[in-house]
Amino acid sequence: MPKRYLKPMQNILNDRKGYLAKGGIYMSKLPTIFVSSTCFDLSQVRLDMKQFIETIGYEPLLSEFDSFPIDPSQNTVENCIRAVETRADILVLIIGGRYGFVLDNEKSITNMEYLTARSKGIPIYVFVQKNILAILPLWKEHPENNYSSVVDTPKLFDFVDNIRSNDSVWVYEFSSANDIVQTLKKQFAYLFYDSIQIRNKLTSVPSLNKYKDMSGKAIRLILEKPAAWEVRLFSLLLQEGINKYSDIRQDLIYNIIYGEGISLSTIEEFLEWFPKQTDLLLRLVDSLNTLINDKLQIAFGEPGQHGDYEQIIYTTNRIVEGYRNSINWALDCKRIYVEEDLNKLINMLPKFSEGIIKEIEAFSEKIELELKDALLRVKNGENVELNLTMTLAAVGLDEFMDEVSSVVRGKYGLIGAFGEASKEA
What pTM did the predictor assign? Predict the structure, then answer.
């Protein structure tokens, strides 16, 4: 069965429109279909596609027509990418014998439109001329041969092969526009049916209304409950949450510090400030460990039983909030100004939080990799158990405390790291 049969209409799940965005009321927007291909060699095919799309009541988006929305401040490539990003609900990719204009990144405009649609997660239907697919195996076996009678550049073979082999996208062959039209009639019918099923499931789960800002992928996991959906939901939400705070993460990496600084002009002020700061971090670590090792396991449920999606969402959101707080904690430390003798101590502090941040990021990546492997093994009939626990700690804090004591006693003659200031007579 073609893989595209299994994909529900993503625009219904899109949080910018559809059922959830209006609290249960569907918006009256026609699905927009972006037709991606080279123009000159496939001009008649593109015209036939526009007429077909209009006939079935959808909105066609083709760059050569005056109905194509442009931003005068952007160039041709930017306008095409923007149209896919902001307007397209479905992408129809048609590949003939021309690769098209090659950009600085060695990819064509059509290739970039396809990649943009992939990253957006909308349904993609790919059609490749029959003679290209027929000669593709020969090119793979003998790439050094001359195929200029079929394609204008071997990059086109690479493009098609990557779509089929690496991206595992279903590819249809065509000889005429009618072949594409007949296929899309059937595929759009399957897509419409899937959309009805999604709508029925959405209306049967009223509690999903409060999660209208969640991605369509997350909602789909909750509704369809595929194998290991609980772990997949957690992995997806955790990765989305980490990505959400990528800007402040970059601030920390590149030492970009905004906001008003805090000056600790005396050793007494420093000794009063840093225990409170380290206590904040330790409580943050304790909370994250509880969420990951206790709360999350309860949310996943007992083996053989479905987990609680609301608890998975809550737990993941709190872990992500802890991740954000860890970044902000390190940035707060970088806003502190002290006298020169205490600079070493201040510079040590952010490292405690940075270790926690990296552990959470590595945990997310580890889950994603192990999940992919586990799903393949389950498909082969194996029983798989995933270990989704970890222990976070403010590594190096004891060494820091020793350094504080050393600096305080050696430089200032104070009693203990936290003792009262008492200058020797």
Answer: 0.65
